[in-house]
Amino acid sequence: MKRLLLLTSLVLSLCCVHAQDLLDERFDLSVQQASLEEALLELKTQTGVNFAYSNDILSTDKRMTLEMRQLPLKKLLEQILKNTAIEYKVVGRQIVLFRKQKRPTSYTISGYITDRNTGDKLISANIFVPGTRKGTSTNSYGFYSITLDEGPVKLKFSYLGYQEVTKYVDLKSNLQLLISLSPSLTLSEVVVIARDSINIFPTNMSTDEIPLGRFKTLPALGGEVDVIRLAHLLPGVQTGADGVGGVQIRGGSADQNLVLLDGVPVYNPAHMVGVFSIFNSSAINSTRLIKGSFPARYGGRLSSVLDIRTKEGNKKRLGAEATIGLTSAKVSIEGPIKQDTSSFIFSARQSFLGFYIRPISRRMKENNGQQGESDYNFYDLNGKVNLSFSSKDALYLSFYNGGDRYDNSTNSTSATMTSRFADRARQALAWGNTIATLRWNHQFSSQLFSNTTLAYSRYAFESEDLYTYTNADLASGQTISEFFFSRFNSEIEDLTFKIDFDYVPSLQHYLRFGASVIHHRFRPGLASLYDDIQLQDEDIALRILFLDTLDNSPVNNLEYELYIEDDIRWSSRLKTNIGVRASMLSVSDENYFIIQPRVAANYRLNRRLQLKASVSLMSQYLHLLTSSSIGLPNDLWVPSTDRVKPQTAWQWVLGASYEIGKQFVLDLEGYYKRMNNVITFQEGGSISFINADNWENNVTAGQGWSYGTELFLRKDAGRTTGWFNYTLAWSTRQFDEVNLGRNFPFRYDRRHSFKLALVHKLSNNWDLSGNWVYETGIAVTLPISEYIFDTPDFSPAQALNFGEKNGFRMPANHRLDVGCNYHFSKKLEHTLSFGVYNLTNSRNPLYYRLSRDPQNIRERTYIQATLLPIMPYFSYTIRI
């Protein structure tokens, strides 16, 4: 074998030497007004070298006059073939002529895809060449760019729920193509759209696009359509009973979710402790949930990204929508400022839960011999104005403001023959978000797009507790008065500047890169006042204890981020997303710098089966301190410091996707996540008396692990659509100073989770829907025994033994919801929605409270608290 290789190399070397010797030989050539073929025949006569060629490559009108003496054959050939598309190659004593291989010329088609009726940009719409693997998708601003070879091209544009559009173009130069899609009106169109989109296979996994029309048809609590309640029905998403406790994704805590409203983080996306979200469905354009395989363009949290984009306003005509349900009313108005160029949208929502709560609470207090009432309401305001200065520039100004208000007052009086008692208690809480955004979209070229954002956001929470008590002894005239007042305050403000670029140089690459800087300002604290006054006859004994832990000086820090990622199409079967994110936090005298690599791959084995894998590192510089008890929020957002390090998490994901027939897709994913520097309160610690100065003394850092498997079967086409999913998962925590350093289950460690959601379209007017959920109960810490001990003054006292951390498993949660929607048009569009939430009246436990057994007051028992029993709902929507 070695001899054969050596001989082959020797022969090739000799051929090369011989060819070079022939080209260096010198000859004469003289021709007058000769054609190319005549010149080659004369050169053959002069040199004796044979020329091999096809006559069709010599078809040229070129004439030449040459007079050359003793020039190398190489120079003679260069002059003869000058300004032609002919090349040559020496083979022995023969020269072979052939036409130069013309490299195909490529051009770029770019533009926006919009809703034909409103002008709203369509996000993640598909653009592809039928019968090939060539395609792309619109970005978060509706922009697309695709580079193809010169010549006739057939393009298809599709988006789920919209009619497909086909365009034929003869590509001879860069082309800007603006596409408008119409919402689908028939079932057959939906089937076609769902099937055609398989031509595009994205690299992102653990990602769910939530179409606007889908969550508007499923059952809605109180008639209030809610995008986050729909997310509860997706695999890997956990929450407390009836949504209380926030959203936990793949074993992470609620503060590890990056919730974005038009690209700006929202710190508390919940109303009514999680029963509803702050997102008004009338204002939403698109929603995307990412649970793993995080692209480098996202950062700042460990567990998930919920990216919500709001509507831009109808550029075609003035329109309005109003909805009234059992819990709230909302209205939205939109229209053009200048036709097809600029528009506005304004949406408002107001709950009227207080209408139900006030009389019910008054009656309950009266039954207990008390006066007073409870009140609770929330509101949301959304607005956006967009101005297009040219086909390449658009400016957007948007805002959001929303909040909750809770009040509870209780007054009671009683009297005996000798004394009179009176006490009064009041609790008032308010919390909410404010967001303002200025955004500029600019298209530098058909391949380069940018988005520049300046944003302000603020989350604030405050509460007040007041209690007074008076005991008047009528016989002695002695009066004892007690007064207690406390105030809690928490606030975080962000000022953000960021710029993002999309660069699409070819079908093989889609580059995204950008940078941002965020200025955080924290104002956490608590103030408490206790005043005890005793009056005896004319003498006054005054004792005041005042504790003020409210730190009015803010804590500031800067967070810097830089990222780049590339969607690389290696072949028609293999595609990867490779990126890196670099972030730095500057706080006090400490600087944290973290490099976060992200890699995802998708390999299509055949037309139906895809294999997927990803690995990513996430970091989080913020921490949320929250009460472990169930109740209204009193959370503190705090930064990383020199004592409390940033949270980080590695996540590995493996998966497969298989298309079953023409309408079903089955996804299977397994994940493993390792979290570092997660924090919790030390044993016995609580949020009751902490502030910006001392919170570090009350927390401890540790580790977390979560892993599991998710099975997701979905059907996006036909009369019946929906999905079924099953999740098998584990989630644990470990802290050296908690639970004696032993591992313990995370509160939302649910072993099994089954979820089903279905929508059946009876006709163009009627559709039926339903969803069913069954989940293993959450893990909680409850007392397992109690004992009596003597205090230093020898009086007996009781103590509870709580045992292992989260050592008790609450009963499983299960719930069935059903709904129906009726659509009709009489000049205006109308929708009637009605159904039943929790049809089976499942009493899912919210929490347990330790109390005395009514049958035996010497024994303690657990009393289960539930929130939402069987509840019918109704809503009516009208659209102009």
Explained architecture:
It is a single chain. The protein is elongated, with a radius of gyration of 36 Å. Helix content is 9%, strand content 59%. The strands form twelve sheets. The chain has a 22-stranded antiparallel barrel. The N and C termini lie far apart (83 Å). The chain has seven helices and 55 strands. β42 and β43 (720-735) form a beta hairpin. The model is unreliable at 1-17, 186-199, 532-551 and 628-632 (pLDDT under 50). It is mainly beta.
Using only CA atoms, what is the Rg?
36 Å
Strand percentage lies at over 45%
Rough shape?
elongated
What percent of the residues sit in helical stretches (DSSP H or I)?
under 10%
Q: Which stretches are poorly predicted, pLDDT < 50 over at least 5 residues?
A: 1-17, 186-199, 532-551, 628-632
Short overview:
The protein is mainly beta and about 900 residues long.
Keywords, separated by commas or semicolons:
880 residues; mainly beta; 22-stranded antiparallel β-barrel; 7 helices; elongated
Task: Set out the fold topology.
Elements: H1 2-24, E1 26-35, H2 36-47, E2 50-52, E3 63-72, H3 73-80, E4 86-91, E5 94-99, E6 106-115, E7 126-128, E8 135-137, E9 143-149, E10 151-158, E11 165-171, E12 175-176, E13 179-181, H4 187-196, E14 207-209, H5 212-215, H6 227-231, E15 237-239, E16 247-249, E17 257-261, E18 264-265, E19 270-271, E20 276-277, E21 284-290, E22 304-310, E23 319-325, E24 328-338, E25 342-351, H7 354-367, E26 371-390, E27 393-415, E28 419-443, E29 448-473, E30 479-506, E31 509-522, E32 525-536, E33 539-549, E34 555-569, E35 574-587, E36 590-604, E37 609-620, E38 622-625, E39 636-639, E40 647-660, E41 664-681, E42 699-715, E43 720-735, E44 744-745, E45 752-761, E46 766-775, E47 779-780, E48 785-790, E49 796-801, E50 808-809, E51 813-826, E52 828-837, E53 845-853, E54 856-866, E55 871-879
Parallel strand pairs: 2-5, 6-12, 6-13, 17-22
Antiparallel strand pairs: 1-3, 4-5, 6-9, 7-8, 7-10, 10-11, 14-21, 15-16, 17-18, 19-20, 21-22, 23-24, 23-55, 24-25, 25-26, 26-27, 27-28, 28-29, 29-30, 30-31, 30-32, 31-34, 32-33, 34-35, 35-36, 36-37, 37-40, 38-39, 40-41, 41-42, 42-43, 43-44, 43-45, 45-46, 46-51, 47-50, 48-49, 51-52, 52-55, 53-54
